[in-house]
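User: I need a structural model of Peroxiredoxin from Alistipes timonensis JC136 for a docking pre-check later this week. Nothing fancy, just the predicted structure tokens so I can convert them on my end. Input:
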Amino acid sequence: MKKILILAAAAAVLCSCGNKNKYTVEGAVAGINDKVYLFDEEEVILDSAAVKEGKFRLSGIAETPAVAILRDARDQGATFATMLILEPGQIMVNDDAENTYRKRVTGTPANDASDAYAAASHALVDEFRNPNTSDERREAINAEYSQLTRTVMEQNRGNLFGAILLAQELGYELSGQELLDEIAKFPAAMQQTGILVKLKENAEQKIKTDIGQPYIDIVQPDAAGKEVSLKSVVENPANKYVLLDFWASWCGPCMGEVPHLKKTYAEFHKKGFEIYGVSFDKDREKWLAAIDQNGMNWVHVSQVNGFDNQAARDYAVQGIPSNFLIGSDGKIVAKNLRGEALYEKVAELLAQ
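Assistant: Understood. Predicted structure tokens for Peroxiredoxin:
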């Protein structure tokens, strides 16, 4: 009898542990396909469920919080897809009455925070894009958006959404050391999540590319297939400053920077300014067409393999456009110069 009681107690403990980390995903979404699939970030299917009259239910165990994607097709033919955060509790997925293209994901702390942030940020973006919004108000909106992100991150350091905001929204603008300082403010358990573990690795690498650090060489093929090193460009006696520019033809903001790159290049190339462009394109023809059609007459290289690029890892590139201005001494003198800031910085340096 004693042995039976011990086994029963052990079973109860295991059951309670499982229930503690259990999640359910219940949805009511109009007009979707007859089956939904839950994917992890690597596009591996975690679960699936039949849909009846727009309703579905999935369940599982979330040992650690994780980002997942829910959509109503394995690959092609999806009518909807939405990101959600798998964590213990009941997660609800519903249509958004005010925005037919957005689905509301609520029910647990991280998902509630994500939903509220999305609503607030979308409202600011809509106001910014309104043609009746003044330039002065747009400047204020930029500041409000940045503050919103920081405030929400601070409020959610105890769940995965806070980590997501740090990685996806703030990681680009913070230095490597600043990122490490922010990661250290999260609870120990959150620091062990995949997002923050990867972000910490990225931050440690990012420190190696901070202003004042020596550049890291890159060797990749140009349009003709000939390997061209960043070192050969930096150490060319004719070049006083070299802009290492990460971009891609499919990247709208990257192409928006092209007029500024061309203006700076036209003005200062003969005075010692060169550009070494590294493309994260996957389509060779589109890469070369963008160069030709936009008159981007500087050094270009690419492995034509997207972000799966050693240079992206070496320079801790989390998003594009991204750039590093390198002096003839091989030291990084500036980073992420956008718009007129590039022209102004190069003009200042060459005037010295």
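Before docking, keep this in mind: The chain is about 40% helix and 25% strand.
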